[in-house]
Amino acid sequence: MKRHMTGKKKEYTIDRDCMIKKFRVGTDDFKKLCDEGGYFVDKTLFIKEIIDGNEVTLIPRPRRFGKTLNMTMMRYFFERSEESRAYLFDSCAIADYPEYMKHQGQYPVIFISLKDLKRDSYDHFIKATKAEIGRLYREFLPISESLPEAIRDRYLRICKEESPEHELYNSLKELISHCYHFYKKPVIVLIDEYDSPMIEAFSKGYYNEMTDFMRSWLGAGLKPEQGQVLYRAVITGILRIAKESIFSDLNNLDVASPLMIGPYADKFGFTEQEVSRILTAFEVEGHADIIRDWFDGYSFGGHIIYNPWSLISYIQAIPNPPSPKWLNTSSNALVYEELTSGGLLIKRDLELLLSGEELRYPLSENITFGDIGKNPVNIWSLLYYSGYLKADDPKFAEYDPNLLTYALSIPNREIFLAYRQFVNRLYETGTISAGIKDFISFFLENKTPSVLEQTLSDLILGLVSVYDVAKLPEAVFHAFVLGLLANLRNVYEIRSNVEAGYGRADILMIPKTGSYSIGYIIEFKSVKKEGDGVKAASDGLAQIREKEYMAALLHAGVPMEKIVKLAVTLQGKKVTVKKE
């Protein structure tokens, strides 16, 4: 269904889903998108949910998932303006709700984005904040004429960016109050990417000062006693920073976590139904499998969600093949820093993810930056909220019936490549980089066991401390090798702990179609006494034969003469490999 409508200055033709002519990659201003004929997936019922929702709402979602576009959409819906903006919504889903359309154009709206306030020091942050708040105050400059002289002087100091730091603490609270009394209407506050400068502060060493500022600024502006003058406040970001850090004064705060079923769950990113309509509109239905493989895999509040930025970029680039579009975002630096500084268990889990395995951990909805590296749960929570993990199948832990855990996995091929990028950087040192090449060539060229022994020994010493090596359990060593084998996924199907013959093989490597026709069976054996590595490896080969693990490779079409059996042991820093 289409409606033809005329605005004051130009005509607009907008279909039922606000899907107009073509994507405008990088455009996150709702009005500009519509005025320029951009293709817009209708998320206007987000406005209805905000009206029906809590006074103050925090919505954490990954970067590039449409947060800023939704925030500007709300601005143009609610904001008082000289020229009507109702035409932007006349053919959208919200137009079917007249009682909600009554709110259109009725409120003073304070819109502020913090994404550009990242600075290398706290002093520079304060300077940038003075400029941003000064700009905001200048938007409402006519208000100053109605203020008492002393308050007007402070207002104008902020406009001129001349106010001392302490006057900034109450700047949001005072602007809300001024707007309410001037317009005789409660105020809507929209704060986009609130955590962007906080992430930067953490990496640059002034996180505590930043926390104090944000607690004062947000706490004063949005606390419950502002209820008479504040209609709604919506805050977006990537993370929910722990309440005790900056939200301690906001008892009226509702957090719409992506883990929760309820409002807002399908309003960021594209649902399967929306993607289907997009593919039909652009006549690229034949690319559905590629798009699902590369950009699907997220689960927000029970909805299957696609990464919108990456999907749009791919469709715009057709017929070019897909490539990672989302990896060079500013949150990568923090993610990489935490992964590389993590301990042995983090490296083991990272390698399990790369091999296609799931992890099971609780996820913390409250993240305190100072504690991220102290607990693996915090690191996986950071990865989940940043868009690098999918969380499914919530279950209470067997060891703690009050602790909810999730099955964590890599959501799609694009994010798999991000992890590979992290691992490649982790392994970039000369010895490690050469070791990985030798590891790969051992399997592709079917080299002698001594090559694998030396390669694994070098890699372990390069990536794990000597102390950790001494206590490295078989399961962790298994996961370590499994992670390295992720480099061979283009030519091998890697299976771990899989039923084979009359038992369970540690690792099976089934060659994909192509020239690498050798299949591998790998068995890990623990060594109990010094000097028993050779015997344990021999026992491993015997186990492969006796349990007939070869049956799985034979069933996959690998002939017996192309099956190589490997038994691997680790004792201290010595690796032993037996092969037949």
Automatic annotation (TrEMBL):
Residues 24-247 form the AAA-ATPase-like domain. It comes from Methanospirillum stamsii. Pfam families: AAA-ATPase_like, PDDEXK_9. This is AAA family ATPase. Gene3D superfamilies: P-loop containing nucleotide triphosphate hydrolases.
